């Protein structure tokens, strides 16, 4: 059983079937060589739409239909006509009450978020973030964030805005003393080419300089588990070795997408089934522990805290195996990646209690 858990055969087969690299490929040197020759070309982002419901407009339309539409009841009886209009009037009043409540709740939440953004402001200072974190009883070892790629016309939209959001999250995470940051975006827009990873790497370095200065820039790595690629912020030959490199990295950044969720579990199931049919894997050895070890090797460990930067809780096909014991946080009506939401998520985690088993 122990030999099977340590064998890379299952992991390699799944990665090859998912069009990834069988061995971890260090693209740091290749990226740094292509940086100078790279021509930053505009790219079109995947379609993204936000449905907006205008309650006032719907109320006016319903009122207009109620009083202008010619109603032809089945009978001309006055009591029945009065009963018909009374029912519609009650329903319309009920809708008005709910609409007023929803609008009041929306305004309250927006005002509260504005107040939080003024109260919690990092001011590009790691010391301010450390002071906020030191007040907490505990902090997570790894944080995962669900982000949406907005349209180019939206504020902080497009891939440039998306990269800026990740850069800010990286600075907040490393300043808080958290060693791992997992970014989940449904389409995997940043995993499509090395050029985008170059832009992300440069943006994170530039943002870390604004926080820490040029002398003490934290070292970080960017990993794409699906393609089994890794990019280091510093071009060092020793970094590519398996031994002695993890201690040099202050922050590990993983980029996940939909492919790392259910499709990876399906490929893992197919691979184990084929190995079992061929007699290379015993059916008795297929256990929860084995599946857990293989998924950790393929996707990564389970995060302690998951932050959804969206107005409603939508996991967007996040890898289901990796959120079994994860603390999940979101702020209603919030659409921006803000430090206030980030620090409130850390506060909720510090007050949470995880019960494993009984």
UniProtKB/TrEMBL annotation:
Q: Which GO terms describe its cellular component?
A: dehydrodolichyl diphosphate synthase complex; endoplasmic reticulum membrane
Q: Which residues cross the membrane?
A: 81-101
UniProt xrefs under InterPro entries? Nus1/NgBR, UPP_synth-like_sf
Q: What does the similarity note say?
A: Belongs to the UPP synthase family.
Keywords on record:
Endoplasmic reticulum, Magnesium, Membrane, Transferase, Transmembrane, Transmembrane helix
Q: What is its EC number?
A: 2.5.1.87
Q: Which domain of life is it from?
A: Eukaryota
What name has this protein been given in UniProt? Answer: ditrans,polycis-polyprenyl diphosphate synthase [(2E,6E)-farnesyldiphosphate specific]
- Compartments it resides in: Endoplasmic reticulum membrane
Q: Per the record, what are the reactions this protein catalyses? A: n isopentenyl diphosphate + (2E,6E)-farnesyl diphosphate = a di-trans,poly-cis-polyprenyl diphosphate + n diphosphate
Pathway it works in: Protein modification; protein glycosylation
Q: Name one GO molecular function term.
A: ditrans,polycis-polyprenyl diphosphate synthase [(2E,6E)-farnesyl diphosphate specific] activity
């Amino acid at each position: 059983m122990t030999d099977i858990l340590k064998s890379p055969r299952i992991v390699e087969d799944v990665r090859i079937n998912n069009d990834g690299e069988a061995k971890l490929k260090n693209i740091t040197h290749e990226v740094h060589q292509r940086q100078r020759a790279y021509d930053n070309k505009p790219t079109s982002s995947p379609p993204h739409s936000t449905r907006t419901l205008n309650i006032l407009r719907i109320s006016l339309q319903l009122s207009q239909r109620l009083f202008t539409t010619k109603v032809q009841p089945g009978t001309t009886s006055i009591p029945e006509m009065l009963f018909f209009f009374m029912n519609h009037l009650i329903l319309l009043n009920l809708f008005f009450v709910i609409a007023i409540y929803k609008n009041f709740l929306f305004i309250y939440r927006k005002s509260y978020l504005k107040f939080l953004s003024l109260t919690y402001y990092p001011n590009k200072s790691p010391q301010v973030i450390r002071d906020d974190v030191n007040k907490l009883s505990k902090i997570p070892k790894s944080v995962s964030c669900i982000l949406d790629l907005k349209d180019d016309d939206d504020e902080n939209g497009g891939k440039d805005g998306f990269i800026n959001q990740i850069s800010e999250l990286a600075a907040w995470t490393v300043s808080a003393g958290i060693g791992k940051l997992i970014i989940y975006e449904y389409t995997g827009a940043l995993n499509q080419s090395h050029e985008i990873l170059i832009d992300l790497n440069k943006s994170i370095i530039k943002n870390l300089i604004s926080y820490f200065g040029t002398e003490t820039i934290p070292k970080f790595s960017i990993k794409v588990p699906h393609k089994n690629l890794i990019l280091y912020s510093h071009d060092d030959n020793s970094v590519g070795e398996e031994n002695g490199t993890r201690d040099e990295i202050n922050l590990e950044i993983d980029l996940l997408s939909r492919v790392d969720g259910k499709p990876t579990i399906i490929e893992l199931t197919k691979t184990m089934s084929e190995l079992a049919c061929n007699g290379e894997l015993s059916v008795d050895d297929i256990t929860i522990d084995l599946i857990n070890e293989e998924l950790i090797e393929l996707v990564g460990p389970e995060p302690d805290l998951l932050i959804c930067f969206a107005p409603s809780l939508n996991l967007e096909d996040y890898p289901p195996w990796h959120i079994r014991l994860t603390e999940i946080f979101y702020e209603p009506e919030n659409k921006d990646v803000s430090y206030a939401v980030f620090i409130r998520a850390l506060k909720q985690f510090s007050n949470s209690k995880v019960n494993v088993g009984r």
